[in-house]
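Reopening: Protein tyrosine phosphatase still failing for me.
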Amino acid sequence: MRLLFICSQNKWRSLTAERLFDEHPHYEARSAGTEPGARVRVAAGHLGWAEIIFVMERRHADRLREKFADELRDKMVVTLRIPDKYPFGDARLIALLREKLAAHLPLL
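Support: Ran it again with your exact input. Result attached.
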């Protein structure tokens, strides 16, 4: 299953989430950001590739819907409600991601 994680800058939250799935046997993950200065900025191709899209905050989902309404038509978008206060790879962020994702990804 192909997972896409979205945050603002694609430097801390979404990149940490992507790394959780490195070499996972059942999930493939990518990440991107919504802002112009993002490490990887989200594009239509990312959304087309993904089977499930996880955003960290509601505002990320709103931005995706504004810019990519057609690409999101048949996609599941899940808001994780994870604030932008954890650095990349932070143990608390990893624990929070695992907790929030468990309901959506049974093979985690």
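The chain has one domain: 2-101. If you still see a failure, please send the error message rather than a screenshot.
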